[in-house]
Amino acid sequence: MPTSLRLIAALLVAATIAAIASIAVLHAQDVAHARTQAEQMTGGSVDRGKLALSRYGCGACHVITGIADAQGQAGPSLAGIASRATIAGRLANQPDQMVLWLRHPQQIVPGNAMPDQQLSERNARDIAAYLYTLRKTTY
């Protein structure tokens, strides 16, 4: 292979590696920002929310990104829920409304499939914090 082609190939490999590294850095920054923003918005803890989602068995009905075995089909997938306009088709997707829905789904939409889990305010805020990290990504 001529020297000029080797140089072009090396430059292409270097550019590809740089692009992949840039995407990885952007993703890490996006995840960190989403976490901080979600905790500030809700007053909850993302880590505690992740544990609470597992403890309350939310994955039995929902697909939930990042929660092991959360592949339920009875309820909607919660992937990208932070990017949605509404919760349950009725409430504006805002932290106080998310907490209200998590605590009292039967009060909001009587007879719906979401059970009232008797969540405390803290557990609901923690779960909301985790759910607000589940945004659609654009890269």
Short précis:
InterPro entries: Cyt_c-like_dom (IPR009056), Cyt_c-like_dom_sf (IPR036909). This protein has 139 residues and is mainly α. The chain is built from 5 helices and 2 strands, in the order ααββααα.
Please write out the topology.
Elements: H1 3-42, H2 46-55, E1 86-87, E2 91-92, H3 95-103, H4 105-108, H5 121-131
Antiparallel strand pairs: 1-2
Description:
The protein is mainly α. The chain has a single domain (3-131), classed as Cytochrome Bc1 Complex, Chain D, domain 2. The protein is 53% helix and 3% strand. The protein has five helices and two strands, in the order ααββααα. The model has no long low-confidence stretch (mean pLDDT 91).
The side-by-side strand order for the widest beta sheet comes to 1-2
Count of domains: 1
Low-confidence runs of at least 5 consecutive residues: none
Instruction: Give the N-terminus to C-terminus distance in angstroms.
Output: 35 Å
Overall mean pLDDT score? Answer: 91
- What is the strand content? under 5%
What is the CATH T-level topology?
A: Cytochrome Bc1 Complex, Chain D, domain 2
Q: What's the count of strands?
A: 2
Top CATH class: Mainly Alpha
CATH architecture: Orthogonal Bundle
Query: How many DSSP helices?
Result: 5
The outline comes out as elongated
The topology string of helices and strands comes to HHEEHHH
Question: Sheet bearing the most strands, described?
Answer: 2 strands, antiparallel
Which structural class is indicated by helix and strand composition? mainly alpha
Assembly state (oligomeric): single chain
GO molecular function: electron transfer activity; heme binding; metal ion binding
Keywords: Heme, Iron, Metal-binding, Signal
Domain Cytochrome c: 44-135
Protein name: Cytochrome c class I
